[in-house]
Amino acid sequence: MAVAPRLAALVEQSLGMPLPVRLRAWDGSETGPPDGPVLVVRHRRALRRLLFKPGELGLARAWVAGELDVEGDLYAALRVLLEPIQSGRPVPAREKLAMGRELLRLAGRSLPVPPPPPREEVRRRTGPLHSQRRDRAAISHHYDVGNEFYELVLGPSMVYSCALWSPDTGDLAEAQAAKLDLICRKLGLRPDQRLLDVGCGWGSMVLHAARHYGVRAVGITLSEEQAAHARERVAKEHLEDRVEIRVQDYRETADGPFDAISSIGMAEHVGAARYREYTDRLFALLRPGGRLLNHQIARRPLPDEKSYRVDPFIDAYVFPDGELAPVGRTVSLLERSGFEVRDVESLREHYALTLRQWVANLERNWAEAVRLTGPGRARVWRLYMAASALAFERGGIGVNQILAVRPVATGASVLPLRPRAWVETADDRGHELRA
User: Fold this and answer.
1) pLDDT tens digit string along 181-202?
2) Which residues, other chains included, contact 326 with Cβ-Cβ below 8 Å and sequence gap of 6+?
3) Average pLDDT, integer, range 274-303
4) What's the superkingdom here (predicted)?
5) In this structure, are strands 397-405 and 340-346 parallel, antiparallel, or unpaired?
6) 217 membership: H or E segment, kind and range
7) What is the pTM of this model?
8) Which of 166, 178, 271, 421 has the fewest Cβ atoms within 10 Å of its own Cβ atom?
9) Across-strand partners of 243?
10) Handedness of CA 300, 303, 309, 311 (dihedral sign)
11) Sequence-distant (≥ 6) Cβ neighbours of residue 233 within 8 angstroms
């Protein structure tokens, strides 16, 4: 009997719904809706992975290894497949056993040996969760995959966080520059102020702030490759007198006070157990009256927060040990450290647009991306970014800019009386000072 109908029956039984996409098996057989994307099972090894790692991790391993693929619109396939896969349905033990037997027959006549995980998967993790050593290893896994690869995906701006879009935005680089400038205005940057950028990436924020606002900036990252690239950019723009790039943990930074601190897409790596330490450290590094801009992805709160689990694909292939928190918890912890939270702005839709641009860049440069990192790594990034775009569009996750200040002793106001004054241009504050 052809494989595809038997496999489709298993999928429908597992999901508790009709197969939402067409399915093609390794024997060439097909079944399912005639139009739309096609889920392709290229090798029976994909089923062996599911036998030993049922659920998302088994599927992820098959995807990264190229044993599972989608032909056609990836977004359309993910839109109809992700939610039922992630939510699942309760399967009675007897039914689960029968499904396992059928899966075993399709995978091979005898009990198969578990295939080794793709090499892109995080292997052994050592040390306590979110220790400095383990955090360095996690950051290296994600970011030290080659600056050339990131240039293909991110474009010339080299900004790895959501851009700021408007109906008049020309392209991704313009949208990223608008985001960086918004942060500078929210921080109220002035010439010769000291700025600390925590998790500085490839240096885009510190370069923008030094070039346009005349600040003296320190950028810290745990990625050696990011730091090397950022230093090259600093030297190319002759800003060595204003910008310093360090390979340094935020817990090791001790040369405050700074007039302003930016943390853009870094706090997701901190972890719940260390987050109060993170907010306490930033508070200590900031002068009284100084501002913090914390730009961070957030998840929706759960009825039982103890049930929160990191997505297994993200944890194994993308952001090892990364954790998301509801925005309310982040605001609360900032306040407990002594900050006065003055503004919270959601940019959820902006991140969906940004991710779609990154996916388009990757797909347009697919052959070069595969040459630089290998097919497995390129497949990881394509799936991760496309699925993330849909998650932001659905509202399952969001991203927020939280502006907080370290209060002065007198309690005097440290922000303009007019709300959100940073929405307007800031030429009178030193903008374009060094352009």
Assistant:
1) 999 999 999 999 999 999 999 9
2) 298, 299, 300, 301
3) 97
4) Bacteria
5) antiparallel
6) strand 216-221
7) 0.92
8) 166
9) 217
10) negative
11) 158, 202, 203, 207
